[in-house]
Each structure stands twice: as C-alpha cells, then as structure tokens.
Amino acid sequence: MIDNIETLKHLLECDKGAQEAVAKASEVQSEFINQFIHEISTPINVITGVAELMEGASLSSQQMSYIKTLRNEGQKLQRLVRQLQDVLAEDYQQKHQGSGSNKELKSAKADALAGTKKHESDQRRHSMPGNPF
Fold it and tell me: Helices marked H in the chain — which ranges?
C-alpha cells in the first residue's frame, strides 16, 4: 500500500510539472505570435498607406492598376492580421476566464491594435491637402 501512495505522489508531481510546462509553452507561443503580429503589421501598414497616397498622383492606367492591386492586397493582409488578433484575444479570454483578467485582455488587445491606429492617424495626416507625400 505504501508503494501505491508513493507512486501516486510521484504521478501527481509529474502531472504538476507537465501542466507547468504546457502553461509556459503556451505563454511563449502567445508572446511569439504577438511579436509576429506587431512586426508584420508595420510593413503591411506602410505598403497600404503608400499605395493609398499614390492613388492621388498622376499615374498611367497601368501604374494605377498596380497601385490598386497593392492597396487591395495590403488591406486583405490587414484584415487577416486583425482576425488573428481577435482569435488570440478570444483564446486569452478563455484561458483566463474568471480570473479577473478582463482588464489585461483589453490592454493586450489595445496594445496589439496600436500599430494599426498609429498608421491610420499617419494616413490622415499625410492625406491632408498640400502634403507632398
């Protein structure tokens, strides 16, 4: 019987270690994906913003076609990134449901969207009349 108790204790310790390892792996994965989203959002926003600005320039129909394609594909990528952000936010919320982390979820989502909002602000400023860019 003592062997069974020792075996049970050992199994419980192994289970606790496995749970901690899974939690750490999940945290590392989330950090990687958040960093990836941030890093890819910046160039996508730049490409899309420049394309939108160039639409106001005097371009040939062929050049305009290229610019529209560039802008449209950039916007598709922006939507894809936002969908990924939403999925991550929902996953985070499910993992931390009931732990009082709603404020953290809103903060994390706000941080993830900060690059998009900054880009939109820059676009408005650059699209003002008289701006050479």
Answer: 2-54, 61-95, 102-126
